[in-house]
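Why do we care about 3D structure at all? Because function follows from shape, and shape follows, mostly, from sequence. That is the central idea of this module. The next example makes it concrete: a single protein chain, its amino acid sequence, and then its structure expressed as tokens.
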Amino acid sequence: LSEPPSTGGSAPSVQMFATAVATPALARFASRDDARSRPRVARRVVLGKPVLRASAGAEVSLPASAARPLRMIVLRHSDSCTEDQSLKDHDRPLTAWGRNAAAALCEGVREAGWCDPDLVLCSASTRSRETLAAMQQVHAPLKDARVIFMGSLYAVAAMDGVTADHLRETIVEAAAAGDAIRTVMCVGHNKGWEEAASEFTGCEVTLKVANAALLECENEDVTLSWAKAFDKENPAGWKLFGVQKHGLPDPAKPEETRGWGDGSPAPA
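And the structure:
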């Protein structure tokens, strides 16, 4: 798999954002696809009722009868090729085992009842994009989600203690853009992914390749907004539902960590 399935026709729109790290989170990225002026496709129906939309800047609140708890799927990309030293770290594709592991992980997440994200935030790295594509091949409803490829998710994952804040900002701003978002899947890299999942839940979370931490907001208010759920002054409470694994025998090669040109570690 070289690229995620192309979108067109009745497929949902995909927004791509350039690499940059500043605030606010979504304003940092210039959309590459918006210039094509493709019509926005209506979101799929949730619980038999159309998804509600809000005016710009207002986060959607669902009626209690139709709402779901807030959920995050913090998913590390699958195994990628390290043999070709001519490739930049960002451009490493998945191995054959990595594609199988991504598909197996998707089946496990689906069986757990978690594979229905409204929004997917995916690192722009090749291995992250191909992980998502492999999952979409075995679970077509994943193509219904709004997908945003972000270069910043690759960059911040290598930095100490910044990934959780970056995900908070990005999700809150995406939720304020007008779609009803209850489940977000984040596809990216260590060390940032482990740090973020651990910070959100207060648990020590370990994510190997093709592993996903399943987080749920532990709050009785099922119409709770993302902004309130991420409020540091009055946290709503995030619970680690579990860590979903691919279930396959480990690949023959050991995991390798490559560095950037300046010797600092690249996202894993």
